[in-house]
Amino acid sequence: MAWEKVTLPIEYGGVGLGSFLDTNLAMLVKWWWRFKLEQGVLSRKVVWSFIAALVHWILFLDCLQMRVRGTKS
Predict the structure, then answer these.
(1) Distance between CA atoms of residues 17 and 19, nearest Å
(2) According to the model, what pLDDT value does residue 30 have?
(3) Dihedral sign, Cα of residue 6, residue 7, residue 12, residue 15
(4) Mean of the per-residue pLDDT values for the chain?
(5) pLDDT reported for residue 71
(6) Please, what is the end-to-end C-alpha distance for the chain in angstroms?
(7) What is the percent of the chain where pLDDT is above 90?
(8) Residue boundaries of the structural domains of the chain
(9) Which residues are within 8 A (CB) of 13 and not within 5 positions of it... i.e. 6 or more apart?
(10) 17-42 confidence digits (pLDDT tens)
(11) What is the spatial distance between Cα 73 and Cα 61, in angstroms, rounded to a whole number?
(12) I need a labelling partner for 57 at 20 to 30 A (CA). Which of 4, 41, 65, 68 fits?
């Protein structure tokens, strides 16, 4: 069975699952909206700490690479 047929509504002969791409996009937009609005929730703090650690790690690696090449920042 073709995926296009599976995602069609039941009224049109499909299985009625809906598009996973559309569902995923909607969930990501909802998550981003809540992330921007809800400042003090634990999930936001965890995500921000992960992003901060990743940025610091990238900057650290960049500094190491510049030292190996002999250039200064």
Answers:
(1) 7
(2) 93
(3) positive
(4) 86
(5) 64
(6) 58
(7) 22
(8) 3-69
(9) 5
(10) 888 888 999 999 998 898 889 888 99
(11) 13
(12) 41
- The first and second tokens of residue 8, run together, are 């069609």
Sign, CA torsion 20/48/56/29? positive
Sort residue 20 into left (φ over 0), alpha (ψ -120 to 50) or beta: alpha
pLDDT of residue 73: 52
Q: Return phi, psi of residue 22, to 5°.
A: -65, -40
Cα separation, 55 vs 46, whole angstroms: 14
Q: What local confidence, expressed as pLDDT, does residue 66 receive? A: 82
DSSP result, 3-72:
HHHHHS-GGGTS-----HHHHHHHHHHHHHHHHHH--S-HHHHHHHHHHHHHHHHHHHHHHHHHHHHT--
Q: Scanning the structure block, which residue is given the tokens 């049109």?
A: 12
Is residue 72 over pLDDT 70? no
